[in-house]
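Module 6 notes. Inverse folding takes a fixed backbone as the condition and produces residue identities as the prediction. Think of it as a translation problem where the source language is geometry and the target language is the twenty amino acids. Below is one complete input and output pair. Work through it position by position during the lab.
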C-alpha cells in the first residue's frame, strides 16, 4: 500500500471502525472471562443464611431470656418485666464502666437484644437474677447489658436488629432508611 492510499479518508474511517469494533469485542471477552472469578468472591448461600436470624418473640415469657445463634455467636433476648425496666432506667447513674442510657440500648423497653459474649475475653456470661455474670473473671452486666464490675471494658454489644412485627425480630444486617 502506498503513502497515498493510506491518506484516503475512506480507508482511514474504515481502519478506525475496525479498531473500535476490535476493542469492544476484546473488552467484552475480558469481562466474560473475568465474570466467573468475580462471582466466586460472593458469599455462598450457607454464609448468607447465617448473616441474619429471624426470631419469634411470642414464646419468650416475661422475665425470661432466650438465646439464639447469629453468625456463630450467642444473642441474648431478654423479655424484661416492668420492674426490670424501671430498675435499669432509674439507675442511670449506676457505677458502670461504660455509661450508656438504657433508652439508647433498646428499641422497645420490654426487649433487650445483646450479643452474649463478655467484652473482656469473649466468654459466654451466665444469667443471674439481675443480669449476667461471666464465670471466668467475674464481670457482671445488668439487665441493660451494661458492665457494672469486673475486667470487662465495655457493655455487651448490641447487634443490628429490627422489629418485623410486634412478635418477630430480624437480627443481622438491617437496611438503612434514607
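Target side of the pair, the amino acids:
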Amino acid at each position: 500500500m502506498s503513502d497515498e492510499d493510506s491518506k484516503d479518508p475512506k480507508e482511514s474511517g474504515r481502519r478506525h471502525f475496525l479498531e473500535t469494533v476490535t476493542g469492544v469485542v476484546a473488552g467484552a471477552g475480558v469481562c466474560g472471562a473475568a465474570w466467573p472469578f468475580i462471582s466466586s468472591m460472593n458469599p455462598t448461600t450457607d454464609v448468607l443464611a447465617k448473616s441474619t436470624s429471624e426470631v419469634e418473640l411470642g414464646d419468650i415469657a416475661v422475665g425470661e431470656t432466650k438465646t439464639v445463634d447469629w453468625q456463630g455467636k450467642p444473642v441474648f433476648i431478654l423479655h424484661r418485666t416492668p420492674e426490670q425496666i424501671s430498675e435499669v432506667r432509674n439507675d442511670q447513674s449506676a457505677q458502670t464502666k461504660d455509661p450508656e442510657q438504657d433508652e439508647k440500648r433498646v428499641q422497645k423497653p420490654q426487649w433487650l437484644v445483646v450479643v452474649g459474649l463478655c467484652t473482656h475475653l469473649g466468654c459466654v456470661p451466665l444469667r443471674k437474677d439481675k443480669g449476667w455474670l461471666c464465670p471466668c473473671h467475674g464481670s457482671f452486666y445488668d439487665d441493660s447489658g451494661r458492665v457494672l464490675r469486673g475486667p470487662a471494658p465495655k457493655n455487651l454489644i448490641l447487634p443490628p436488629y429490627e422489629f418485623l412485627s410486634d412478635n418477630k425480630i430480624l437480627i443481622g444486617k438491617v437496611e438503612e432508611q434514607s
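Reference fact for the lab report: The first helix runs from residue 3 to 6.
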